[in-house]
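#structure-requests
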Amino acid sequence: MAKKIQIYSTSSCHYCKMAKEFFNDNHLAYEDYNVGLDATRRQEMVDKSGQMGVPVIVITDEEGEESIIVGFDKPTISGFLGL
């Protein structure tokens, strides 16, 4: 099973766009949740990260353990994904 990537983002967030471009450039599938439009996903993001800032990126490994990255931290994301 591959790692699962989820990104909680908004339409106007520059760093969210950078993160999605990074995933696309590396041919990585991800689920994108627009928390500006979806209150349920927004609350889910706050529950996971403890804050309202975006992007919040959740990488779930093969064992089901979640790693939560707040912001577009390319070195950290690359490390979790083994890039």
